[in-house]
Amino acid sequence: MTGRQHTPPGAGAARQAEHAPTPPVALTIAGSDSGGGAGIQADLATFAALGVHGASAVTAVTVQDTTGVHGVHALPVDVVLAQVDCVLADLAPTVVKVGMLGEACLTLAVARLAAAGRLPRLVVDPVLVSTSGHSLAADGVTQALRDHLLPHAVLVTPNTDEAAALLDVGPARSVDEQADQAQALRALGATTVVVTGGTVRTAAGADRVDVLAEAAGTHVFRSSEIATDNDHGTGCTFASAAAAFLARGESTRDAVLSARGFVRHALRTSAGWRLGAGRGPVAHTRTTFLDPPASPLTSPLTSPLTSQGAPR
Ligand SMILES: Nc1ncnc2c1ncn2[C@@H]1O[C@H](COP(=O)(O)OP(=O)(O)O)[C@@H](O)[C@H]1O
Ligand SMILES: Cc1ncc(COP(=O)(O)O)c(N)n1
């Protein structure tokens, strides 16, 4: 017995009818999170949930779970660049998303690729410190990001702490300061900057505020906070969702709005989970965000998707 099944007549034709259209391709250059909540794992799960084929170049292996980061092991720069080179040559991604780079020498090497025009529609999530408080960036990374990589990005997605570190100022104390920091970062050369993760106390609890700075001005996106312990990897998920929506043909501002909606949906879906002893992952793939799945990849997303992230 070989275990091979008899193929009924006509099954070939049925298989052919199931062929899906070729998906857009995005490349993520980021660190591995062994717990599967953030980093490369979050990026690939998000790309998959949004109908985008994800290729990856691993920059570092972190020993990590829901309780924190227990070790960081950087890969040699030439090994990272070799992964990027072969993916660029074979799969021709139309969007590149960068997360944890870890070392200044790697940040400079990726910036050189960007300066040479080899990283199309670059989305940079300037990962510096994990939510659990562990450094994910060695000395010199902040400066290398600010001076060499960010100017090549179509979108930069720091949280409020990362924005403050990149500008070498204190964290924003108001939405106005968050907006000023988004514009100050944009002045460094990126096309669009969104500073995420601002919190404003309200009578009902709190609102989460993301501020987008682009040439046309500043936009404040504000929605109620979702109560959950499962928020590990929200920043990676937000940036990779924005990259996926860009790959699907959205404008940068729409991609940011759609990414907000995706993260909020993923946070709501996982709010009751118990995965691990710490802060669990968001529900990257347990989502019906894009249903009905038959929607063509090239068509614009329907209005309910973008309105989820709209300011109120
Ligand atoms: N508890 C929450 N409720 C609603 N939105 C959230 C919550 N936590 C994070 N977000 C949203 O997730 C996205 C990324 O979050 P952020 O906290 O900035 O990520 P990180 O700190 O991991 O980089 C932003 O759109 C932010 O507003
Ligand atoms: C490999 C890797 N990349 C990025 C993050 C940031 O994610 P978070 O802010 O949720 O800790 C992380 N913890 N690990």
From TrEMBL:
InterPro entries referenced in this protein's UniProt entry, alphabetically: HMP/HMP-P_kinase_dom (IPR004399), PM/HMP-P_kinase-1 (IPR013749), Ribokinase-like (IPR029056)
GO cellular component, one term: cytosol
One annotated GO molecular function: hydroxymethylpyrimidine kinase activity
Region listing for Disordered, in residue ranges: 1-28, 284-312
Keyword Transport: no
Span of domain Pyridoxamine kinase/Phosphomethylpyrimidine kinase: 33-282
Keyword line: ATP-binding, Kinase, Nucleotide-binding, Thiamine biosynthesis, Transferase
Pathway: Cofactor biosynthesis; thiamine diphosphate biosynthesis; 4-amino-2-methyl-5-diphosphomethylpyrimidine from 5-amino-1-(5-phospho-D-ribosyl)imidazole: step 3/3
Record-level GO BP terms: thiamine biosynthetic process; thiamine diphosphate biosynthetic process
Enzyme's top EC category: transferase
EC number: 2.7.4.7
Pfam families per the UniProt record, alphabetical: Phos_pyr_kin
Domain of life: Bacteria
Residue stretches of biased makeup (Low complexity): 296-312
Catalytic activity: 4-amino-2-methyl-5-(phosphooxymethyl)pyrimidine + ATP = 4-amino-2-methyl-5-(diphosphooxymethyl)pyrimidine + ADP; 4-amino-5-hydroxymethyl-2-methylpyrimidine + ATP = 4-amino-2-methyl-5-(phosphooxymethyl)pyrimidine + ADP + H(+)
PANTHER family xref list: HYDROXYMETHYLPYRIMIDINE_PHOSPHOMETHYLPYRIMIDINE KINASE THI20-RELATED, PHOSPHOMETHYLPYRIMIDINE KINASE
NCBIfam families: HMP-P_kinase (TIGR00097)
Role noted for this protein: Catalyzes the phosphorylation of hydroxymethylpyrimidine phosphate (HMP-P) to HMP-PP, and of HMP to HMP-P.
Name the record gives this protein: Hydroxymethylpyrimidine kinase phosphomethylpyrimidine kinase
Protein's organism: Intrasporangium calvum (strain ATCC 23552 / DSM 43043 / JCM 3097 / NBRC 12989 / NCIMB 10167 / NRRL B-3866 / 7 KIP)
